[in-house]
Amino acid sequence: MDLESVKKYLEGEETENNEGADSSKVTKLPNRFIERFVTQGVKVDLIEPGRIICSMKIPPHLLNAGNFLHGGATATIVDVIGSAVVYTSGLTQTGVSVEINEEIEIEARTLRVGKAVAVVSVELRKKKNGKIIAQGRHTKYLAPRSKL
């Protein structure tokens, strides 16, 4: 995919394989919709100070086109369960301090792209002062394409 197509995809603009994003549907979703959408069915198997073990059956709506758990769902699970374990340590608040409608900047960099694996790093920063509010590293398996 060329750079302009990637840009259009991320911004929800029309591309050859995309009929365009309908932002009106997204803005009508209830607050914190994504947490419930992704973590529906989570069962807490063990909870103790500083530790939580959960299990869940992955529903079809969380699978990507390759039939694997979607990376966005993975990140949401890490965020929700990771925040919950902070609460078990006695804290009453967790999270990143970002104002409503505050603009952030997201920078993604490829660290390595091999034959079977790609590794990327992503930083989220407050645009007004450059303060890092979140970092993530993502390793992706690059499934070989069929030669048929």
UniProtKB/TrEMBL annotation:
<keyword id="KW-0378">Hydrolase</keyword>
<dbReference type="GO" id="GO:0005634">
    <property type="term" value="C:nucleus"/>
</dbReference>
<dbReference type="Pfam" id="PF03061">
    <property type="entry name" value="4HBT"/>
</dbReference>
<keyword id="KW-0206">Cytoskeleton</keyword>
<protein>
    <recommendedName>
        <fullName>Acyl-coenzyme A thioesterase 13</fullName>
    </recommendedName>
</protein>
<comment type="subunit">
    <text>Homotetramer. Interacts with PCTP.</text>
</comment>
<dbReference type="GO" id="GO:0005829">
    <property type="term" value="C:cytosol"/>
</dbReference>
<keyword id="KW-0539">Nucleus</keyword>
<keyword id="KW-0963">Cytoplasm</keyword>
<keyword id="KW-0496">Mitochondrion</keyword>
<dbReference type="InterPro" id="IPR029069">
    <property type="entry name" value="HotDog_dom_sf"/>
</dbReference>
<feature type="domain" description="Thioesterase">
    <location>
        <begin position="67"/>
        <end position="132"/>
    </location>
</feature>
<dbReference type="GO" id="GO:0005739">
    <property type="term" value="C:mitochondrion"/>
</dbReference>
<dbReference type="InterPro" id="IPR039298">
    <property type="entry name" value="ACOT13"/>
</dbReference>
<dbReference type="GO" id="GO:0006629">
    <property type="term" value="P:lipid metabolic process"/>
</dbReference>
<comment type="similarity">
    <text>Belongs to the thioesterase PaaI family.</text>
</comment>
<dbReference type="InterPro" id="IPR006683">
    <property type="entry name" value="Thioestr_dom"/>
</dbReference>
<keyword id="KW-0443">Lipid metabolism</keyword>
<feature type="compositionally biased region" description="Basic and acidic residues">
    <location>
        <begin position="1"/>
        <end position="11"/>
    </location>
</feature>
<keyword id="KW-0007">Acetylation</keyword>
<dbReference type="GO" id="GO:0005819">
    <property type="term" value="C:spindle"/>
</dbReference>
<feature type="region of interest" description="Disordered">
    <location>
        <begin position="1"/>
        <end position="25"/>
    </location>
</feature>
<comment type="function">
    <text>Catalyzes the hydrolysis of acyl-CoAs into free fatty acids and coenzyme A (CoASH), regulating their respective intracellular levels. Has acyl-CoA thioesterase activity towards medium (C12) and long-chain (C18) fatty acyl-CoA substrates. Can also hydrolyze 3-hydroxyphenylacetyl-CoA and 3,4-dihydroxyphenylacetyl-CoA (in vitro). May play a role in controlling adaptive thermogenesis.</text>
</comment>
<dbReference type="GO" id="GO:0047617">
    <property type="term" value="F:fatty acyl-CoA hydrolase activity"/>
</dbReference>
